[in-house]
Amino acid sequence: MGYRFAIVGATGNVGTEMLEILAESDIDVEEVFAVASRKSVGRIVSFGDKDIKCVDLETFDFSKCDIALMSAGGDVSKKWSPKIAEAGAIVIDNSSAWRMDPDVPLVVPEVNAEAVDDMKKGIIANPNCSTIQMVVALKPLHYRAKIKRVVVSTYQSVSGGGKKNMDELWEQTKSVFHPQDTFPPVNFTKQIAFNVIPHIDVFMDGGDTKEEWKMKAETMKILDPSVKVTATCVRVPTFVGHAESLNIEFAEELSADEARSILRESPGLMVVDKQEDGGYVTPIECVGEYATYISRVREDSTQDNTLNMWCVSDNLRKGAALNTVQIAEVLINRGFKGRKAA
Questions:
Q1: Distance between CA atoms of 271 and 58, rounded to whole angstroms?
Q2: How far apart are CA 78 and CA 97, in angstroms?
Q3: What whole-number percentage of the chain has pLDDT above 90?
Q4: Are residues 324 and 236 in the same domain?
Q5: How far apart are CA 282 and CA 259, in angstroms?
Q6: Long-range contacts of range 98-107, CB-CB < 8 Å, 24 or more positions apart?
Q7: Helix, strand, coil in percent for the chain, rounding step 5
Q8: Is 129 a catalytic residue?
Q9: Is the pLDDT of residue 12 over 80?
Q10: For 231-241, what is each residue's pLDDT tens digit?
Q11: Has 242 been annotated as catalytic?
Q12: Which residue among the candidates 54, 65, 129, 286 is catalytic per the annotation?
């Protein structure tokens, strides 16, 4: 007997990716329930070669499940995750609702898989997409030379904000070539087509946006509370794939060559770093891929024990759906039996 999964938010961008990645995984899946809001009840989604009809979140019996993969937004998660956990299913939540709760593990399997053992509420949180790819790259280097400080600038695709943001980029791009079809900003503060916007999420005291704060707070919780992070998060007019420019200061000396060697041998990473035209990975090339890609590793001549690098990942995959399914794999590999134990 395999495991029963509920995918909550099954019709969204991340929900459909969760279904695809779960179908591709090695998990013994007995049954999958596609759970969505009432307006999507009856809609058909795909799980491998099967078609599944969406059921209503409000009436679904979660006691039939072992694991619920949540991608329905923070408000929905705050209301439903405790109820789902009380019904007996482990919740792996993709929203920001539980990330900083001290009783909820915040997990990136390549970095802190053991944190799932500290679950106290039946809920495990999936980190922010931009944080995930960064800490996957930082962990093996931190183990070798201890990171003191990270300065990160992000180049985040519009899909990080959902389908409505992707639609806005598409419509605005068309309107640039057809001025009679104007499409003013709705989901962004300024035009996103042919533009970049240094503003993701709300502004906080001190001038950082919440996205920038998340990168700092989540990295400290996942990797090491002593690591200092400062971020500038920017939305760019690409549909899928987040990129980051990282400046990393270490406590010990670490050459670019050794860093490349370490990263090549580390889980979840691929190094493509040729010092020639096109010898690096860009967001469009990482779409649909599982790996986080590292390029442009080089020493910072202005600062001792400091490296620069370029980090790219599919934000809908590793930044969300893939990491969630990998957490489920970690749970199972560490002995979670679900209904099998009953």
A1: 45
A2: 6
A3: 96
A4: no
A5: 20
A6: 98/123, 98/125, 99/125, 99/127, 99/128, 99/214, 99/218, 99/221, 100/217, 100/218, 100/221, 101/125, 106/218, 106/221, 106/222, 107/222, 107/323, 107/327, 107/330
A7: 35, 25, 40
A8: yes
A9: yes
A10: 999 999 999 99
A11: yes
A12: 129
The single-letter DSSP state of residue 6 is: E
Query: Which structural domain, as residue segments, surrounds residue 271?
Result: 130-314
pLDDT at 300: 98
- On whether both 76 and 209 belong to a single domain, the answer is no
Q: State the distance between the two ends of the chain, measured CA to CA, in whole angstroms.
A: 12
Confidence (pTM): 0.95
Structure tokens at 288: 């649909």
CA dist 53 to 19, 32, 66, 107, Å?
13, 10, 19, 30
Which pLDDT score is estimated for 340?
58
Is the pLDDT reported for residue 295 higher than 80? Answer: yes
Residue 113 amino acid letter: A
For the four alpha carbons of 221, 104, 58 and 338, in that order, the dihedral sign comes to: positive
% of residues, the chain, pLDDT over 70: 99
Tell me the C-alpha distance between 277 and 263, whole Å: 22
Q: The CATH number of the domain where 278 resides is what?
A: 3.30.360.10
| Number of folded domains that form the chain | 2
CA dihedral 19, 25, 31, 33 (to 10 degrees): -20
228 and 141, same structural domain?
Answer: yes
Among candidate residues 233, 242, 286, 311, the one labeled active-site is 242
How far CA 275 is from CA of 97, 272, 278, 308, in Å, comes to 42, 10, 8, 14
The pLDDT tens digits of the residues spanning 254-278 come to 999 999 999 999 999 999 999 999 9
Q: Are residues 144 and 92 in the same domain?
A: no
